[in-house]
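Recall from the previous lesson that a structure prediction takes nothing but the amino acid sequence as input. Here we apply that procedure to Extracellular solute-binding protein from Pedobacter agri. The sequence below is the only information supplied.
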Amino acid sequence: MEKTINLKGITWNHSRGLLPMVATAQRFSELYPNVNITWEKRSLQQFADFSIQELAERFDLLVIDHPWAGFAAKTKSIVPLDFYLSDDYLADQERNSVGQSYESYFYDEHLWALPIDAATPVAASRPDLLAEKGLELPKSFEDLLALADKGLVAFAGIPIDVLMNFYTLCCSSGEDPCQNDEEVVSQSLGIKVLKMYRELASKIDKANFDRNPIQVYEAMTKTDEIAYCPFAYGYSNYSRNGYARKVLHFHDMISLDGKNNLRSTLGGTGLAISSKCEELDVAAKYVEFVGSPACQSTLFFENGGQPGHLTAWKNDEVNRQSQNYFYNTLPALQRAFLRPRYHGSMYFQDHAGDVVRDYLMNGGDEIQVLNQMNELYRKSKTLVLS
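The prediction returns the following tokens.
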């Protein structure tokens, strides 16, 4: 009689984060009856902040955010998946990466998680509200400001999302952030971006500064007050019939220069295995199952997941069920900026957003804001986190 193998996983608390893992675990246990996989959940903020080293002490499987890759490489709290997955399988995953999703988990010559979920900030709208008011989707920043003047615009304003949107505006204005060891961006560009961002922020409801993307989409679907969000991490769940009171449509973003759409900051999630896991081969077999193109395009997506495999993004049935979410937003994914992943990057990510958010809400001196960010950035380069 085969021994029973029990694996525990930790993911994040949203239909997109939990349900596909529960569904894939159930199906996997039907295929391998001696294997039981149970999933627990944590909040979106804990997902961004909580050390994976601590989680790896308690769980066999972890759904993680790619900025942890450098930390993982340093601490070895999770295992390199290239030791357990075949070269052919990984070649297919790399070939079918949505934007730089595969690369985002590759650090120090190893793959630390499999990109099972792909996301970046994209635009979202309520077509019914825009039509009712005789309005069109904005194309330029000027269009966006005009729509915001009507009180119809929102964006996620908690610190982490504010920082990601700051990155977006920098990338889209000609400079990728964090490209040297001394400053986040040049002073001249930083001042320009902060002023632009503050102008938009001054026109939105202050309630948005306490909202993450999920809460923005909930506000857009529960009420009829917000018709457009210019940038927030996309959630295909809200584009599916029956998920919320109203269906959202998702789009590529506006252009700052009339030629190129905004370039946002890559998100998504990866499936990792703890170095404390005692059944590494079985855990790897489950990771392989979840990330397979067949599972991604069917079981994973149909249970609320947002796939990380390109074949699912280009699948006609997947798009039919989601108002073409994946077709419409794929260009944004393909050009998305890959944020820093060095060992101390999480310290900067955890603190710099507070500085930008305070400026957006209360105003202030842009040079002082940039100096504070640069000080945090330089400190993060010297940290040895545990």
